[in-house]
Specification:
Layout (H helix, E strand, L loop, with lengths): L2 H11 L4 H8 L3 H9 L6 H11 L9 H10 L10 H13 L3 H11 L5 H8 L3 H22 L2
Helix pairs in contact: 2-3, 7-9, 8-9
């Protein structure tokens, strides 16, 4: 069962509107709608907050490690294969080649396993800006890996 389906199912079974859930999570109704349509997915911190709203245990939707793995595995080109050492080398080269702020945000997310809100707070940024930087960085990583793993 997908995260999108589970969020919608929990909300509807609680007779809750998207706006009510959004208000409880301090996000927009549009963002809740995107989650439920599968056009976006909450990070592990937000999933934990959603669990708290509905009285579900952390990990109800997906484990934190699985969520981060899915985010990064989407950067791998289809059919590409590489060993751990090669991926580590490529990732280090990629991070050296991008701007320092983007690299730091990427490391905070995928090495230090911090949530968007924690990264934003530590770097004096807005959470949506952190999300945007990470999204753009993952797209750049995917293009980089497509070139390097041909």
């Amino acid at each position: 069962m997908s995260v999108a389906y589970k969020i919608k199912e929990l909300r509807e079974s609680a007779n809750m509107t998207q706006q009510t859930l959004a208000d409880l999570l301090f996000v927009s109704r549009e963002l809740v709608a995107k989650w439920e349509q599968g056009r976006g997915r909450p990070d592990h911190v937000m999933l934990s907050r959603i669990c708290a709203v509905f009285g579900k245990p952390d990990g109800y939707f997906i484990s934190k490690d699985d969520g981060l793995y899915e985010e990064l595995s989407a950067c791998m080109p289809d059919g590409a294969e590489a060993g751990r050492e090669e991926l580590t080398r490529l990732l280090n080269a990629f991070l050296r080649g991008i701007d320092q702020r983007s690299a730091r945000i990427f490391i905070e997310r995928y090495v230090n396993v911090n949530g968007f809100a924690d990264i934003a707070s530590a770097l004096g940024m807005k959470e949506n800006h952190v999300r945007s930087v990470l999204s753009k960085t993952r797209k750049k990583l995917k293009k980089y890996l497509e070139r390097e793993l041909k």
